Amino acid sequence: MIKQNVLDVLNLCKSYGNHLVLDDISFSIRENEIVGFIGPNGAGKSTLMKCLCGLIHMDSGNVTICGHDIQSQREKALSHQASLIESPGLFFNMTGYENLEIFASLKNVSKDKLQQMSDYTRIGDYLKKPVSSYSLGMKQRLALSIALLSSPQFLMLDEPMNGLDPSGVFELRKELRKMVDEQGMSLLISSHQLNEIEKIADRIIYIENGKIKEVQKQEQTITYQIRVNKIITDHRFRKLSDFLYKFSIQNPNELSVYLRKLEREGVQLLDITNTSDDLENMYTRIYGE
């Protein structure tokens, strides 16, 4: 089954005065896909997200969400998306539950959905307290629950892990993956926490100075380089030089299988290095130190 595009961005440009912030940006996001959005501060990530949810107008280009043009069919396009960009936009003098109620009435969602999202916040009795008393992590969870009230097909999150403790980060990552896999949602997520993006994203878009530098599909392949004491004849080991070989596996558990096979053939392992190009290495290669 061919997956449809939930988001299409074509030749998007945005300037502030003489400063070109977004320069001819084009990319797509498919159904059930999580796309990581990475770049240094000032690269244009937040500006692009604001263009995609209609908070600011682009100078030129086209954006369609679920087939609806964000300029000519603004209401229909925005009805399919939700976003959490920069700091959570909450009413700090009201309780968490009152915040949920206000947005639920604006989105015309049912009482059952309101209760579901109230439970989803997982902040318990704090829902009855003013938002001004919340930690940053609690505000993030409340804002995410509000964004999910309308069951969007496309969700944008800007630094959603801010303020979350390690268990909160793990929980959020699991929940987002579940929503994408089970509810058919697509997600564009921007974060400086590279290890978390690496664990959740299907593809990663790198941006710098308003231009897309590279798009990388996340592979599950793990690559190792080994130095041994004799020639290996197994074709799964690619020879780099005398007694230096390279091989790739899809599952970490396969490593012991490969090493036991070498041992049975009398090959002595002198050195082994994981040479997989992880996200931190990619970031350094693209943006420098």
Automatic annotation (TrEMBL):
Domain of life of the source: Bacteria
N-terminal signal peptide: none
Pfam families per the UniProt record, alphabetical: ABC_tran
SMART domains: AAA
PROSITE patterns: ABC_TRANSPORTER_1, ABC_TRANSPORTER_2
InterPro entries for this protein: AAA+_ATPase (IPR003593), ABC_transporter-like_ATP-bd (IPR003439), ABC_transporter-like_CS (IPR017871), P-loop_NTPase (IPR027417)
SUPFAM superfamilies: P-loop containing nucleoside triphosphate hydrolases
ABC transporter domain location: 7-234
UniProt entry keywords in alphabetical sequence: ATP-binding, Nucleotide-binding, Transport
GO molecular function annotations of the record: ATP binding
Homology family: Belongs to the ABC transporter superfamily.
Protein name: ABC transporter ATP-binding protein
Organism: Holdemanella hominis
